[in-house]
Design brief:
The chain is α/β, with parallel strands linked by helices and 428 residues long. The protein folds into 3 domains: 226 residues, 3-Layer(aba) Sandwich (Rossmann fold); 42 residues, no CATH class; 88 residues, formyl-coa transferase, domain 3. Helices cover 43% and strands 14% of the residues. The strands form 4 sheets. It has a 6-stranded parallel sheet. It has a 3-stranded antiparallel sheet with strand order 9-10-11, with helices on one face. A hairpin with a 2-residue loop joins strand 3 and strand 4.
Length: 428
C-alpha cells in the first residue's frame, strides 16, 4: 500500500454502508484497516451473495481491509479487542451508543486502554437527546431529516420512495464525513499528542445536504422558508395529508422551473443532453447559440418574471428551443455547445461508464485482486489523487476472518493463544 496514511492503524467495527465507506476511504489513503465482523459476517457481506460469504455490496465498501471475525459477546474476544486497541491509532464504529457500551467497545472503555486513541463514532441521530439510542438506517434518516419530503417522489401507490433510484445518499455522504473527520483528528494528534472522540450522524449529514432549506436567514426567508412553514401549518390544520401537500409544493417549484430554458435537460434526435447556464454571461451565450435575440426575464431588470405573461413567454421559448434540440443527435449538440463554451453533457447510464473515454483518461477506476477470486474486479477509484503520496488501492475486500492469525500475531498473540480463542468460539 501507499498513500498519506501509510503507517496508521485502524480498527473498523462498522457495518452496512456509511461506516464501511468511511473506513474504506482510510484504507484507500494507505491506512492498515482491520475490519472486525461477527462470526457469521456483517450483514452486507450476506446480502445478495454471488458465492458463500461474498457479495458485490460488501466488495464495493470494504476494499483494502483485513478481516478479523470475533464474537464480541465472548469475554475472550473483548480481551482480544483491548490488546488490539493498544496498537491502533483509530477506531471507527457505527453501533448505537448503548450497544457499544454493552459490548465494551465504547469510547470510555477503549480510550482508557489507549489514551491517545481517535474514536470516530457514527450514529443515526447523534449521541445526545431522546433519540441517542434509537436505531436508524439511511431511509429512516432521509425521512426524519426532510430529504424524502424534499425529493417529493412517490410510487404508483402514492408511497414516498427514496430519491436517485434508491441511492443511499446519507450513508455515502456520511462516509466522506468519517474520512475527513479522521484525517482532521490525526492532524490534531500529530500536533498535540491528544486523541479524542469524533462524532458524525446520518441526521447531521441530511441537514448539511439540504443547507439552504434547513438554514434560517430571516431577511431572506420571507418568500421562502417562512412562507413554507405557514403553508405547512395550514395544511396540517386542514387535514390535507402528506402526499397532497408535498406534491403541491413540488408543483409550485416546477412551475417556476418549467419555463427555464437555461438549466435543464433536452431531448435530442437520439437521446438527451443537459445544459447548465447559471450566470448572466452563460445565459447570453446560450441565447446566441440558439438564435434567441432577447429574453426580458434576463435583460430587463424591471421585468416581473413571476407574472403570467412571463410564464407564457417562457413556455413559448422552451417549446422553441426543445424543437431545435430534437433536430440533431446528442453528439452534434455536444460538439456545437462545446464550441460555444456552454456547459453540457449527454445523459449516460452508469453501467456503461467503465468504458467511457473520460473515465479511462483520468484513471477513475481501479482493478483489484481478491484472495479467493483473483483479479479482474473493477471499482471506482478513490475520490481524489495526490502527487507526492498517491492512492493506489490494489486489494479487494477481505474474505471473512481471513487475517485473524496474522493480525493477532502482530500484537503478540502466540499460535497457541490464537488456537485457544478459535476452539473457544471467540474468533473464526
Amino acid at each position: 500500500m501507499s498513500g498519506p496514511l501509510t503507517g496508521v492503524r485502524v480498527l473498523d467495527f462498522t457495518q452496512v454502508i456509511a461506516g464501511p465507506m468511511g473506513a474504506q476511504h482510510l484504507a484507500d489513503m494507505g491506512a492498515d484497516v482491520v475490519k472486525v465482523e461477527p462470526l457469521a459476517g456483517e450483514p452486507w457481506r450476506l446480502t445478495a451473495q454471488f458465492m458463500p460469504g461474498e457479495s458485490k455490496a460488501y466488495h464495493v465498501l470494504n476494499r483494502g481491509k483485513r478481516s478479523l471475525a470475533l464474537d464480541l459477546q465472548h469475554p475472550a474476544a473483548r480481551e482480544t479487542v483491548r490488546r488490539l486497541v493498544k496498537t491502533m491509532d483509530v477506531v471507527v464504529i457505527n453501533y448505537r451508543p448503548d450497544v457499544a457500551a454493552r459490548l465494551g467497545i465504547d469510547y470510555e472503555t477503549l480510550s482508557a486502554v489507549k489514551p491517545d486513541l481517535i474514536y470516530v463514532d457514527s450514529t443515526a441521530f447523534g449521541r445526545n437527546g431522546p433519540w441517542a439510542n434509537k436505531p436508524g438506517y439511511d431511509i429512516v434518516a432521509q425521512a426524519v431529516s426532510g430529504v424524502l419530503s424534499a425529493a417529493a417522489r412517490f410510487d404508483e401507490h402514492g408511497t414516498p420512495v427514496l430519491m436517485m433510484g434508491g441511492l443511499p445518499v446519507l450513508d455515502l455522504a456520511t462516509g466522506y464525513a468519517i474520512g475527513m473527520a479522521t484525517v482532521a483528528a490525526l492532524y490534531h494528534r500529530a500536533l498535540t499528542g491528544e486523541g479524542q472522540l469524533v462524532e458524525t450522524s446520518l441526521l447531521q449529514t441530511g441537514l448539511i445536504l439540504q443547507h439552504g432549506r434547513f438554514s434560517s436567514l430571516p431577511a431572506a426567508d420571507v418568500t421562502g422558508r417562512t412562507r413554507y412553514l405557514e403553508d405547512l401549518q395550514r395544511s396540517r390544520e386542514n387535514g390535507e395529508g402528506y402526499q397532497a401537500f408535498v406534491q403541491r409544493q413540488r408543483a409550485q417549484y416546477e412551475a417556476g422551473q418549467v419555463a427555464n430554458i437555461y438549466y435543464r435537460v433536452y431531448y435530442t434526435s437520439d437521446g438527451a443532453i443537459a445544459v447548465g447556464n447559471l450566470s448572466p454571461g452563460l445565459r447570453k451565450k446560450f441565447r446566441e447559440a440558439m438564435g434567441i435575440e432577447y429574453d426580458p426575464r434576463d435583460d430587463d431588470p424591471n421585468y416581473d418574471a413571476a407574472s403570467p405573461e412571463a410564464l407564457e413567454f417562457g413556455l413559448r421559448l422552451r417549446d422553441e428551443v426543445e424543437a431545435k434540440f430534437r433536430e440533431h443527435p446528442s453528439a452534434y449538440w455536444s460538439d456545437y455547445l462545446d464550441a460555444q463554451g456552454i456547459p453540457n453533457g449527454e445523459l449516460t447510464f452508469t453501467e456503461e461508464l467503465l468504458e467511457h473515454e473520460q473515465v479511462r483518461a483520468n484513471n477513475y477506476f481501479v482493478e483489484l485482486e481478491h484472495e479467493l477470486l483473483g483479479g479482474g474486479e473493477f471499482q471506482p477509484a478513490p475520490p481524489f489523487q495526490m502527487q507526492k503520496t498517491p492512492l493506489r488501492p490494489t486489494k479487494s475486500s477481505p474474505p471473512l476472518g481471513a487475517h485473524a492469525d496474522e493480525v493477532l500475531a502482530e500484537v503478540g498473540f502466540t499460535v497457541e493463544e490464537v488456537e485457544t480463542l478459535r476452539q473457544d468460539g471467540a474468533i473464526l
